[in-house]
Structure prediction request, 357 residues.
Amino acid sequence: MATKIESVTFRPGKWPVVRILDQRKIPQSIEYLECAEPGQVMHAIRTLAVRGAPAIGVAAAYGIAQAMALSAARPAGDFNRILAEIADAFAATRPTAVNLFWAIARMRACGAATEGQPVAERVQSLQTEALRIHEDDRLCCQAIGQHGAALLPQRGGILTHCNTGALATGGEGTALGVIRAARALGKDLHVWVDETRPLLQGARLTAWECLQDGIPATLICDNMAAHVMKLGRVQAAIVGADRIAANGDSANKIGTYSVAIACARHGIPFYVAAPTSTVDLNCAKGDDIPIEERAAEEVTTPQGVALAPEGMPVFNPAFDVAPADLIAGIITEVGVARPPFTADLQRFVESARLRLA
Ligand code: MRU
Prediction:
């Protein structure tokens, strides 16, 4: 089986090779990593060659299916142990995006459901499940776009942070997917793209996607967002999420919290767009969400250029949490959750679970 679902981030390869677009190279070049074994998929996740909460989940699912395909010749009695070990290894790649753990849980459940079957069939089922995870995410993006498009104004400026497009998902994107869907309805929108320090997912990736698609967009440094709002050029802000707590507090790329605060100051609606696989009902509130801290070099040495004096201490949290009271709506594939969020999110997660069962 090849990875048969065509998307920008994941291209069909000669199975069990997993082909993943190397986002570290964009916009300079378009190169696909040919991951021949799961260690390479894990490395791609850790180093952000593949990034964005939904895309990380899809990558892990393919990596687990790949690992089990590669170990198909091992004794049947080893199957469960190997699956558990590889699932644990993928779970240790990045801590914040809950879609990773959601996809891994689906792969574990699939393995458990095939207990007692011949190894070849179990391997096949895991491959099929990975493809379903990818396809489900593509469909989620479509539905999020449809639900969210109605919320954006007929014309005006939309500010976004980080990259939430095709590069970050298995489909057209979450927040950027909403913008795409709104434009498809004929809305006349201009995107304000936050550069997204320190790794510049906005400047490198969202800017690239907007240019590729002919979406009118302007790049700004993160610290210009409040000023652009004050100038009256932003009518709504929309971002993605890596983990949404049961009360609606939403973790997303560092800098998102500042955007939410600036929106509140200027009376601009601030929306979060994410599939229900990003909602973690086990986290009661934002403070319970683990926040990844990354290497100092990402701050001191962007793109390999040393900017700060050597030895300078650095704090580099990769995410922050926009509190629920600053969020006008959380756009999911099931519908738009409204404040105070708890009941809607619970209902949406349950409805998505029933759909997948
Ligand atoms: O560290 P990254 O680049 O993986 O962080 C990505 C984000 O914060 C995205 O905004 C989020 O995952 C939503 S992607 C649809």
